[in-house]
Amino acid sequence: MEKPIVGGQAVIxxxxxxxxxxxxxxxxxxxxxxxxxxxxxNSISDKYxxxxxxxxxxxxxxxxxxxxxxxxxxxxxxxxxxxxxxxSDTEMIATIFFAxxxxxxxxxAIPTFAAKFLxxxxxxxxxxxxxxxxxxxxxxxxxxxxxxxxxxxxxVFQYHGAEHKTIxxxxxxxxxxxxxxxxxxxxxxxxxxxxxxxxxxVSIFVFAFLxxxxxxxxxxxxxxxxxxxAGISYEIIRFAGRSKNSFVRLAIMPGLWLQYLTTREPDDxxxxxxxxxxxxxxxEEFLN
Length: 288
Known about the structure:
This protein is an alpha+beta fold and about 290 residues long. The protein has helices at about 45, 55-80, 90-115, 125-150, 150-170, 180, 190-205, 215-225, 225-240, 245-250, 255-260, 270-280, and strands spanning about 5-10, 15-20, 20-30, 35-40. The protein has twelve helices and four strands, in the order ββββαααααααααααα. It has a four-stranded antiparallel β-sheet with strand order 1-2-3-4. Strand 2 (about 15-20) and strand 3 form a beta hairpin. It is globular.
C-alpha cells in the first residue's frame, strides 16, 4: 500500500512536518530537549472540494503552506530562545503580506522592468518575454546562492536535509531511527526548492505568449497568472515525486541539483528532531 504523502519544512533549530490532518513542529531547545507542538490542520479544500481539482489544488497548497510555514517559524524562534513570544494574528498577516510583496518585487517587477532595456536589441515580443524569464531565473539562482552562504541559514539548511532524509525513510517503509535515516540522500524530488525552480521555468512558457504591453500591465498580468503557474508547477512536481520513469527523473534533475545549495548533511541530533516531528503526525499503523 502506498503511503499518504507527508511534507515538511526546516525551521529555526527544528523541522515542521505536515500530514494526516496534523502539523507538528519539533524544535531543539537551548537545554537540549525537543519541544514538539502538534496542531490539527484543516484545508479550505475540505470545505470546498472543488479546490482539490488539478490546477486548483496547487495554489491552495502553496498559500496554506506559506501560512503554516510562517506560524512554525514563529513557534521555532520562540522555542529556540530567539524570540520572546509568537507572532500575533496581525503580525502574521503583515508578515505574509510583506513576504508576498517582496517576492513580487524581486521575481516579477525587477526582471520585467529590466527586460524593457532589451527593446533596443529586438522588438520580437516572444523573445523579450523569454529574456525576461531567463532574467528571473538568474535572480532566483543568485538569491539562493547568496543566502546559502549565510552561516545561520546553513544551519537551517542542515535541518532541511534532515527533513528530506526522514521523509525518504518513511516512504521506504523503514523504522524511523537515526541510523536508518542517515542512509538516505538529502535531495528530494518534492522539495519546495525544486517546486520554486519549476515555477520559474513554467512561468517562462506561460508568459512568453502574452505580448509586450506597457510595464504596469506586464507586471499585473504576471501577478494575476501566478495561480495558474503555481497550479501547473504543483501537478508537475506531484507527478515527478511519485514517478519511477527514467525520463521524468532526468527532467527533474536540475531541481535536485539546486538542493545542493539549500540542504546540508545534518548531524544525528538534527535527525532526531526531524524524526520526532514526523512521528508526531503519523499514525502508528504507518510507522515501522
